[in-house]
Design brief:
heterodimer; A: 270 residues; mainly alpha; MetI-like fold; 2 domains; 0% strand; B: 337 residues; alpha+beta; Rossmann fold; OB fold (Dihydrolipoamide Acetyltransferase, E2P); 6-stranded mixed beta sheet; 6-stranded antiparallel beta sheet; 9 helices; 19 strands
Chain lengths: 270, 337
């Protein structure tokens, strides 16, 4: 009975979560007539026209390229800074480390709309609006607190002895970090990397206000701008959304064990 | 830690012995450069090293929990420091193989640490230190994570290794058996201070104070506290009187507070006429080779280590005396000779 209830609730939650996703995946395969048919058609006739149109007419690949550049750059820079910061927070005897971590957590809870104005003005002042480095800088400020937090927990879990062994063996602090600590922290780095990547890949609001040149726009903004003045290309939007989601689904499915491990670091003594 | 000052001779095996929390590991870490002292200096050879980072001190450290690099194979673990010091590949290969053979881990060179048993990991940790040929080896309770049999074996091997390498070693332990068997020089520490420096025999036979006397020796030395009167009689706090006139040898000041220490093996059975102590056996631990007899002499509890040949029954009355030469006397915690 208990097992059944569990299975039923998992199924219910799964269905509820997957419903919108499945709906637009199904929609992406429908013809224009099927999309607006009343009563609604559930199973599509597997048209690939929407995909073709999204790529050729709406420049989907170009948006994917932009998103990939922005998300990868954000991930790399964010992680490079976060791993150094987290190493210091976890290892050096800093009296204010605890408060600093709390502050970081508080910062990551800030509603985006509250900082959108200042961020825009700052980037405008630097003349960084409509540039990759502008949007990447904005994304780093969004993802860094979280990445530092995850990595600090992870570094704290690593036995200190191993690092000391490296120091006595002849490593400088820097070599110890590079040759011993980072390889051991790989699962944590991985978790942080994937979560930062997903965040940057999905982000819409900052991208919308910072990137106004179509040449630089990322996937979420690009898709949102598919509708014309008199048209609403549901099929193409669905096709583009499906493609946009695929890398994330793939990443998460392949690395789900590592992500869970990384997130639960500190919860259980290994 | 205060007033810590000692020298380890070239090629000497020096042991820092003390209970947990006495500061012995901290001392070792200060020598390694993993912790900094608020004052004082550390010299290796003629170089002052306490201002140098650990990597420039030319010391090797063997950690209690091995601290092997989990992401490297045994070979890489052994060769890591050589690689950092820019030693040529062929040279690394030769030295690592040589050390692996010495420690009998040459079959495990391609394994990762998690595939090894505790004893093998310990050997890798040792090998990592040996392969570097450092000026000084530092050991932080390296055997404490091993089971009893393995620990005894490794202890012997460590001793052999020291003889063979002839290197200078500083070894921290709380295990007196390790200290006594391995140490050419033993430094007993307690509460951040050096209590005594000496050979195993000196520490055991001439403990400089009550702490050393009680810490070294298994079972513990018997202590009898009391006041000595003018006739060589000790009025013990337990309310029992003992005639010590025969064994005092004029060593103690009459009419003073005194602690008498007698090692369990120094108590011998004798006739009632010759006895210093007469007691009843309360508990007997028979170890085969000898037996530890726990006695009650009035209000006093004593342990005697007697040969196992003549079995003692519970409740049996025993008459014991002690060779005057073997009695340790302490006044205000310090030994008096």
């Amino acid at each position: 009975m208990k097992k059944f209830a569990f299975a039923a609730s998992v199924a219910a939650i799964g269905t509820l979560t997957l419903l919108p996703f499945s709906w637009f995946v199904l929609t992406s395969w429908k013809s224009a007539a099927e999309i607006i048919a009343i009563p609604p058609v559930i199973l599509p006739s597997f048209h690939w026209d929407n995909y073709r149109a999204a790529i050729t007419r709406y420049g989907l690949l170009h948006y994917i390229g932009n998103s990939a550049i922005v998300a990868l750059a954000t991930t790399l820079v964010s992680l490079a800074i976060a791993s150094l910061a987290a190493f210091a927070l976890a290892r050096f005897k800093l009296r204010w480390a605890r408060y600093y971590l709390m502050l970081l957590l508080a910062l990551s809870m800030f509603p985006q709309i509250a900082i959108a104005g200042p961020v825009w003005r700052l980037l405008n002042f630097l003349d960084w609006l409509n540039s990759y480095h502008g949007i990447v800088a904005a994304y780093i400020s969004l993802t860094l607190p979280f990445a530092v937090w995850v990595l600090t927990t992870f570094f704290q879990e690593l036995p200190y002895d191993i690092e000391e062994a490296a120091l006595v063996d002849g490593c400088t602090r820097w070599q110890a970090l590079r040759l011993v600590v980072l390889p051991l922290a790989a699962p944590g780095l991985f978790t942080a990397a994937i979560l930062v990547f997903i965040h940057a890949w999905n982000e819409f609001f900052f991208a919308l206000i910072i990137l106004t040149y179509p040449a630089l726009q990322t996937l979420p903004v690009g898709i949102a701008l598919f509708p014309g003045e008199y048209t609403m290309p549901w099929g193409e939007i669905a096709a583009a959304s499906t493609i946009a989601t695929l890398p994330l689904v793939a990443l998460t499915l392949i690395f789900q064990r590592r992500i869970v491990q990384g997130l639960s670091a500190g919860a259980v003594k290994g | 830690m205060e007033e810590i000052s000692f020298t380890v001779a070239d090629g000497e095996f020096c042991v820092l012995l003390g209970p947990s929390g006495c500061g012995k590991t901290t001392l070792l870490r200060i020598v390694a450069g993993l912790e900094s002292a608020s004052g004082g200096t550390v010299d290796i050879d003629t170089t002052r090293v306490d201002l140098l980072p650990p990597q420039e001190r030319d010391v090797a450290f063997v950690f209690q929990n091995y601290a092997l690099y989990p992401h490297m194979t045994v070979f890489e673990n052994l060769g890591f420091s050589l690689r950092l010091h820019g030693v040529a590949k062929e040279e690394i290969q030769t030295r690592v193989t040589e050390v692996a053979r010495l420690l009998e881990i040459d079959n495990q060179l391609n394994h990762k640490p998690q595939q090894l048993s505790g004893g093998q990991r310990q050997r890798v940790a040792l090998g990592r230190a040996i392969v570097r040929r450092p000026k000084l080896f530092l050991f932080d309770e390296p055997l404490s994570n091993l089971d009893a049999t393995l620990r005894a074996n490794m202890r012997v091997e460590l001793g052999r290794l020291h003889t063979r390498l002839g290197s200078t070693m500083l070894y921290v332990t709380h295990d007196q058996a390790e200290a006594m068997t391995l140490g050419e020089k033993i430094i007993v520490l307690d509460k951040g201070r050096i209590q005594q420096i000496g050979t195993a025999s000196e520490i055991y036979h001439q403990p400089s104070n009550l702490f050393v006397a009680s810490f070294v020796g298994q079972p513990q030395m018997n202590f009898i506290e009391g006041r000595l009167d003018g006739h060589g009689k000790l009025h013990s706090k337990a309310g029992v009187e003992f005639d010590l006139s025969g064994i005092l040898d004029g060593r103690a000041v009459p009419d003073s507070q005194l602690t008498v220490g007698i090692r369990p093996e120094d108590l011998r059975r004798c006739t009632a006429a010759d006895a210093c102590f007469a007691g009843t056996a309360e508990f007997v631990e028979d170890l085969g080779s000898d037996c530890f007899v726990h006695l009650v002499c009035g209000g006093l509890k004593l342990v005697a280590r007697l040969p196992a040949q003549d079995p003692i029954k519970l409740g049996q009355r025993l008459d014991l005396n002690v060779d005057p030469e073997r009695v340790h006397l302490f006044h205000q915690e310090r030994r008096i000779d």
